[in-house]
């Protein structure tokens, strides 16, 4: 007959419980960080340099006054992009 000493079981059980608690903390930390990164990226994406209505109106005025022969390539590209978004 095999006798099991309770002194052998308790430390193993305690180690198992501690390991489970550490894994639970790790899992919850990973889940929280995933939600935080999703929230930050959504916030950054919504504020990613889009022009406001006031800026669009100012750009439309500049494009209307622009002389195509004297304008640089960036200004021409911006006006073309603005015209495409209006369509």
User: What is the 3D form?
Assistant: rod-shaped
Strand content: under 5%
The termini sit apart by 88 Å
What is the H-and-E element order? Answer: HHH
Biggest pleated-sheet summary: none
- Tell me, rounded to a whole number, the average pLDDT: 82
Q: Can you count the helices?
A: 3
Tally of DSSP β-strands: 0
* Number of separate structural domains: 2
**SSE-based structural type:** mainly alpha
Residue share in helix: over 70%
What is the CA-based Rg, rounded?
A: 32 Å
Give the low-confidence spans.
none
Overview of this structure, please?
The structure is a single chain. The chain has 87 residues and is mainly alpha-helical. It has two domains: 1-50; 51-87, no CATH class. Helices cover 78% and strands 0% of the residues. The protein contains three helices and no strands. The longest helix has 41 residues, at 6-46. The termini are far apart.
For this entry, give a set of tags.
mainly alpha; 87 residues; 3 helices; rod-shaped
């Amino acid at each position: 007959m095999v006798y099991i000493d309770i002194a052998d079981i308790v430390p193993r059980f305690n180690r198992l419980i501690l390991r489970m608690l550490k894994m639970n903390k790790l899992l919850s930390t990973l889940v929280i960080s995933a939600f935080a990164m999703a929230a930050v990226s959504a916030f950054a994406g919504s504020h990613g340099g889009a022009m406001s209505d006031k800026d669009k109106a100012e750009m439309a005025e500049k494009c209307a006054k622009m002389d195509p022969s004297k304008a640089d390539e960036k200004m021409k590209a911006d006006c073309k992009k603005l015209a495409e978004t209006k369509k």
